[in-house]
Structure formats: structure tokens, C-alpha cells
Design a protein that fits this description.
By secondary structure, the protein is mostly beta strands. The protein has two domains: 48 residues, no CATH class; 83 residues, OB fold (Dihydrolipoamide Acetyltransferase, E2P), CATH 2.40.50. It is 6% helix and 33% strand. The radius of gyration is 16 Å and the shape is globular. The model has no long low-confidence stretch (mean pLDDT 94). Bound molecules: zinc ion.
């Protein structure tokens, strides 16, 4: 089941982030990286903020990330999210994509289970209009 109701507004790609969303449609989470100085940037932008190069490529993100920060929403900002409260909004970062922090959600979990520093695993979630959205599930250490 999708994290938000199917009536929730779809992402509207811009000229700058269109390729990011095209890759997500193929269930590939990739981040833009400067070809010249190898600095990652997200959200995507036309040039590198560090060296101003216009050349960029796309690098596949690891499937495991870490919660850098999160919040719990009790008062939805959109009427189509009323049935989803309380819901979480997380900021995750990736060990091999320095500087990238992705806004997302942790699915299939009570908001009480979230902690800063928790490890999460990529889980593609169906969005409105056939989109695929990069969301996450908590990784639990296996008991031995
Ligand atoms: Zn650069």
C-alpha cells in the first residue's frame, strides 16, 4: 500500500530534475555529480556550485542510507494527506554520496520507531500517476 492516498498530488518534474525522476521511474535512485570536481549535488542543478562546471553525470546511490533528521507531521499541509497522519518526513544521507541529503519517508513503521542515525533501506513506493518514489524501510539488525 502506498504511503500516501492515491489522490495525493504527483511530483511535477522541472527542467532541472526531470532526469532524476526519469531514473526513479525505472526504479533507479541516482544523484547528479560534477564530472570536473566529483561534487554531488541534490536537488539537481544546471551547474556545479563548487567549480561552476556544466558537465555532470549520474551515480547510482547505495540502497542503504542513514536518517540524518526527521519530523512527524500531525497537521497535514494538504487535504489529501489527512488520512495519513501522523506521518513522518525524513532526511536521509548516503555514505558514498557525500553532501547529498534526500527528503523522503520511512514506510511500514510507527513514527515512534524512528531515531536519528537509524539505518534504512531503499523501498520503492507507488506514487500518483504511476510514479515511483524513493522511500525507505528501517533496517533491523538480525538477532544471533
Ligand atoms: Zn564541480
Amino acid at each position: 500500500m502506498a504511503y500516501f492516498p492515491s489522490t495525493f498530488p504527483a511530483v511535477a518534474p522541472t527542467l532541472d530534475d526531470r532526469h532524476f525522476w526519469e531514473l526513479c521511474a525505472a526504479r533507479r535512485l541516482c544523484f547528479q555529480r560534477c564530472v570536473n570536481c566529483k561534487t554531488f549535488r541534490h536537488p539537481p542543478a544546471p551547474f556545479c556550485p563548487r567549480c561552476q562546471s556544466l558537465a555532470s553525470d549520474w551515480v547510482e546511490a547505495p540502497t542503504v542510507a542513514t536518517i540524518f533528521s526527521f519530523t512527524v507531521v500531525y497537521h497535514p499541509s494538504h487535504s489529501d494527506a489527512i488520512s495519513a497522519v501522523p506521518y513522518n518526513v525524513v532526511l536521509v544521507e548516503f555514505e558514498s554520496c557525500s553532501g547529498v541529503r534526500l527528503v523522503s519517508n520511512v514506510i511500514d513503521e510507527s513514527v515512534d520507531a524512528l531515531t536519528v542515525g537509524a539505518r534504512v533501506e531503499l523501498a520503492w513506493d507507488a506514487g500518483t500517476g504511476g510514479q515511483w518514489l524513493p522511500r525507505f524501510r528501517l533496517l533491523r539488525l538480525k538477532q544471533t
